[in-house]
Amino acid sequence: MQLRLNEFAAIGLLFAILVGAQLSAAAQNPAGVPSGDRPAEPQAQTAPVSDRSADIFDSAADAKAQIATALEAAQREHQRVLLLLGGNWCTWCHRLHTLFKENKDVARLLKSEYQLVPVDVGRFDKNTDIVSGYGLELKKTGVPFLVVLDSDGKVLAKQETGSLEQGQAHDPDKVLAFLTKWKAEPRDAETVVTQALARAAAEHKSILLRLQAPWCVWCRRLEAFLSRPEIEPLIGRDFVDLKIDMERMTHAKEVAARFCTKDAPGMPWLAVLDAEGKVVVTSDGPDGNIGCPVAPGEISHFMEMLRKGAKKLSAGDLQKIEDLLKEAAAKFKPAATTQP
User: CA-to-CA distance for 124 and 63, rounded, in angstroms?
Assistant: First the structure.
């Protein structure tokens, strides 16, 4: 009798363990969402600590607004928009995002050629209008999922990421090949200059020339300031904005040499040109290239550059630009300006 009781207790204990395991699995997989990042591959949904250092997706973000902002930036910078759809629970989303950040070649290509927008799909129940709008079936394909848009919002590519994997990670070569395939065609610097000169002549404006590079932190900070909604219209009254990307444009070095006599002036390097392409003034001050103006002397030099090219800007307009520039400069933190 004692033997049978022990057997019965053992069976009961085994039954309790199995029921407990099923309840635990159900807690990780509400609403019957396929377990794992991809429905065809049952795996734990929650990323291990080693695969996740912080949330990728902002659950409170307005994804549509983020996409719209990214498209505006892509139009200015001649880039693509890359949507990364997934959820913070997704192990493979974290692995792909880690590759985006930590692989030098992938990170550099993304920074140069794309505006990256993480889109939170929750447990396949968030931003469903965005998902359906792009004709995606994420419950079938799994996440992470990539969508490439041109600067007008047209879908260029839809990519499930299972085929980009190798073992327990994403293959950097495959990811690089995908990103390289869908990046924008490089613009010709000579053509860009010709177009800017024609526009300046037609609109009776000067040209604000900027030599820059994607890796340059101070270039991005100056771009962010000049593109502010309260600044861009003011600058646009008197200047055609002419940006020469030293890495992404063909014939960029030849164009730079035409206007800048220094071999390595640092970036950003600026010049005001008249409508015929003659240099009026450059960003080379008493202490060298001012770059993105931050120090008082740099700001003074930059404002003098604007004054020499301005025709319609009033004293009040110029003072507003200077005040806002000083305000922005006070918030800048030291940053490396060398290429990674």
Answer: 15
